[in-house]
Please model this.
Amino acid sequence: MSAIAGILLAAAPVALAAQQPPAPAADMLLMPQMRLHDPWIVADKAAGTYHLFTRNDARMTGDARLGIMAYTSRDLKHWTTPTLVFAWPKGGWATDGAWAPEVHPWRGKWYLFATFHNEKLPLPSRGARPLHRRSTVLAVADRPGGPFTLVRGGESVAPAAQMTLDGSLYVDPAGKPWMVYAHEWVQTDIGTIEAVPLNDDLSAAGSPRVLFRANEAPWALAQPQADGTNIYVTDGPELFRTRTGTLLMLWSSYGKGGYIQGIARSKTGDLAGGWEHLPPLVRRDSGHGMVFRAFDGRLMMILHRPFTRALGKLYELRDEGDTVSVVREATELDLEAYPTHPCGPGKRPAGGDPDEC
Model:
C-alpha cells in the first residue's frame, strides 16, 4: 500500500551485533496471531528495533479510535502487543480508513503517510458510481515509533478532488521528494500509479503525473463490477533502487488467482519511466508488499496474505542488479502463515512458476 527508497539507497549490510537480543517474553506475539493489513516495517538499527505499522484494531490495542497501531520486535519473529501510535483527531474530516501506513525519515523527522476517507463528503460523479473524499495525509514524529501528530490539519497531499490512496515517499537522486500513489479505480475505472512533486515541507509542489495504468501489466486482469463495468486496480506502490542504480516499483493488482505482488522497472532509471512490467514476485492472493533491510544485512519483503483476514508473510530477496528476486519464504519467522499451496496441502510444483500448478 519509497520509505525505504530513502533508507535503502544508503543502506549497506550490517554485521550482527556481538550480543544477541534478550530472550522474548512469554506473552510476545507470533505473526499468525497478529492482525495486519498493508504492513510496513521500519528497521531502526540504532535502537535494534523493528516497527511494524498497520491499521488500528481495537481487539489488539484495546483502543477503538481510528488510527494506526504498531508492533515492535527485536528479531522479526517475536512481536509486542501493538500500541496506537496515531489517532485521527476529533473534528477532522475523515471517518474511516487508516489504510496503508508508511513511515519515512525526512529532514530529521519521521513522517507517517496514511489514507483516510469519508463517504459523506461526496465528489462530483462521472457516472453511476458514487465518489467520495479519499486521500493520503501526513503526520509527524521525532522518533520512528511515534507518537505522530497530524500535519496541516489532515490536508490532502494529492489533489483533494482525486480519490487516491497508498501514498509513498520517494526521494530522487537530486534530493527532491515525491509522493507516489494509486489513483483509485473507483474514479477512473482503470487505476493508475501517479506521482506528485513535493516541497521540502512535503506539501504538493506541482500537478500529478501518470506513471502507468494497471492494464499495462500483462498479468493484470479486469475485475467485473455489478454496474457492468470492468475495472483494473492499482495498489501499494513502493520504490526501491538496486545496487546498480536500477529503479524498481513494487505494486499490486488482481490477476489469475487473486491479489498479486507485482514489480515494475523504470527503463530510464527515473521516476518518469517509462515503466516495464516484470513477472510478479508473488501470486497466491498476496500483495501490498514492501522491502526493508534486516539488521543482519538480508534484503527482506513483507506482504499480507490473503487479502481478507490478512496475516503477514516474510520473504528473503536477492538484489540482482536489474531486478530483485525471491530467494525463499522466511518460514522460520512467519511460521508459514496461511501455508496452503495451490497444488495442494504440503505440495510444491515440480518446475516452472513456483506459485502456480
Observations:
- Confidence is low (pLDDT under 50) at residues 1-21, 341-357.
- Helices lie at 3-10, 58-61, 185-188, 331-334.
